[in-house]
Design brief:
This protein is of the alpha/beta class. 55% of the residues lie in helices and 6% in strands.
Length: 333
């Protein structure tokens, strides 16, 4: 159980809440009513109900937490499976800013969703008062929110490893980190994030990046939903996904049927010797086309099964190894 904030007070990147204790000590209710959550002027600190609802929504992983016990089927079983921001560009991925905690580090083809660091989470006082204190207004939800916030904070240790990553994060089109923070300050702030253990964070954050296409696929099996996150907002874009497989299947069957028709028509012809050579060529050409299409189809099916089986063997082996290490560490004093 976490007892202290994951960073020192001297290294906090936001000190707006540091004066809150002084306000409470002076009993200045008029000043206290004007205080708000850093970065969110609409969330007043004295409105406990609204504040708690907001914090729960900010870190509520919802369906993703329900899928967490089965995430080993969908991604590498390591919390460090997170490419730094410069590496995301090398992979050709565009960083899409999202405020939905479920989509943080979820990627889909050429884009990856990342949730910016909120100002209040950079405050030492916030962690003490709302995420660590037994008298936190979050009540029974405190530990759940704390683990989700801690795991989310740890992801930035992997996202920003170099100064080039920091420059990308602080660019005007992303603003993943609040303004006014220097590279040295961020390094001091995140210097201890690497010692955060998996048992201290939400189960989702024991994994890194997750592919959205797999989440959408397994959501049908485990969540009984049509999708985890809708990616097509228009009918045209939705049905366009089926054009490629449909045309490919249609082409294969067309070649097969045409080749069969040529072979059947040849058997029914009563031809002169003048056309026998040409018809034999057509006959063998249709047979060769038939064999090529069947071979290609079998090769594609084999390739899919090979990659699918290899991924499952790797996932099961990795899971067995992780369980063995967990059991070994629990036995050791």
């Amino acid at each position: 159980m976490l007892e202290t904030p994951p960073f020192q007070q001297a290294h906090q990147l936001n000190g707006e809440l540091h004066t809150m204790q002084t306000i409470e000590d002076k009993k200045s209710q008029s000043d206290f009513h004007q205080a708000h959550l850093p970065g969110h002027p609409r969330i007043a600190l004295d409105n406990v109900s609204k504040l708690c609802t907001f914090l729960r929504r900010e870190f509520d992983l919802a369906d993703l937490e329900r899928l967490a016990p089965r995430l080993w089927m969908m991604t590498m079983q390591s919390s460090s499976n997170i490419s730094p921001l410069h590496r995301q560009r090398v992979k050709g991925r565009e960083v899409i800013v999202t405020e939905d905690p479920r989509l943080h580090l979820v990627w889909y083809y050429n884009r990856i969703y990342i949730k910016p660091l909120p100002r209040y989470l950079l405050s030492h006082t916030f962690w003490q008062k709302y995420l660590l204190s037994p008298t936190s207004p979050l009540g029974s939800r405190r530990e759940t929110v704390q683990k989700a916030a801690l795991g989310y904070l740890r992801t930035y240790y992997h996202l920003i490893k170099h100064e080039s990553d920091f420059r990308i994060a602080t660019s005007k089109d992303l603003c993943l980190i609040p303004e006014g923070v220097s590279w040295e300050q961020f390094c001091n702030f995140s210097s201890t994030f690497d010692i955060i253990q998996d048992h201290e964070v939400s189960e989702r954050y024991r994994y890194g990046e997750i592919r959205l296409s797999r989440l959408n696929f397994y959501a049908k099996l485990f969540l009984f939903k049509t999708h985890f996150q809708r990616v097509d907002g228009q009918y045209g874009a939705y049905f366009a996904r089926f054009y490629g497989p449909f045309l490919f299947t249609f082409g294969i069957f067309s070649v097969l049927l045409n080749a069969m028709q040529v072979e059947m028509a040849f058997e029914q012809l009563d031809t002169s010797d003048h056309w026998v050579s040409f018809l034999l060529m057509c006959r063998w050409y249709s047979i060769v086309c038939l064999l090529i299409v069947v071979t290609l189809s079998l090769w594609l099916a084999f390739l899919f099964m090979f990659k699918f089986t290899r991924e499952w063997i790797h996932a099961l082996g990795d899971r067995h190894k992780k369980k063995r290490l967990t059991k070994k560490s629990s036995i050791q004093p």
